[in-house]
Write a structure and sequence with these properties.
Elements: E1 6-10, E2 14-17, E3 20-23, E4 31-32, E5 42-43, E6 45-54, E7 67-70, E8 75-78, E9 89-91, E10 98-100, E11 110-114, E12 130-133, E13 145-147, H1 149-158, E14 164-167
Length: about 170
């Protein structure tokens, strides 16, 4: 695969796409080769961009060739490694541990679901590793990659279904 279709993320909080470099937030646990559930680390690897989720009450549908779906108040993501739905979307209310996708803050206004630990999910290898919007001042994530909304929308306009995110040490 040519580098033209690779979003490259570096451990020094830089993201490169189509010859441009952007600031990004990464996991509070650093960037690790051996991602484990709850370590707060961003995993090293190459991950396909699967689909885009967004808050329709906060912004219009992002322009992209990826599949796009609206986030609802009933959307969650299972992060319980002992549950059969581990690292999969779930409908709330949900009895096992999970992330709520309809958040009060703005970091999940746009989420790109990446192909991390999903084919099939391996318990304890990490869940809900997304590409999403950054908190103010690029505060650390729980293991995701995060950028500003402007950068996210610009990237989404130019990615294809073949685009991957490569996270490097």
């Amino acid at each position: 695969m040519s580098t033209d279709n690779v979003i490259t993320v570096f451990a020094d909080h830089k993201l490169m796409w189509q010859g441009r470099t952007y600031a990004c937030a990464l996991g509070k646990g650093g960037v690790l080769q051996d991602k484990r559930e709850g370590d707060g680390a961003t995993p090293v690897g190459r991950f396909k961009l699967k689909r885009v989720l967004y808050r329709p009450d906060r912004l219009k549908r992002p322009e992209t060739t990826l599949n796009v779906a609206e986030i609802t108040k009933q959307d969650g993501w299972c992060d319980d490694p002992t549950h059969a739905d581990y690292n999969r979307p779930v409908t709330l209310p949900f009895v096992a541990s999970h992330e709520v996708l309809w958040r009060d803050d703005h970091i999940y206004n746009v989420i790109v679901v990446m192909g991390h630990n999903d084919d099939p999910p391996v318990p304890y290898k990490g869940s809900a590793v997304f590409f999403h919007l950054a908190r103010p001042h690029f505060e650390a994530t729980e293991g995701c990659v995060a950028v500003t909304q402007d950068v996210m929308l610009k990237i989404l306009k130019s990615v294809t279904e073949e685009t991957v995110m490569e996270i490097r040490l």
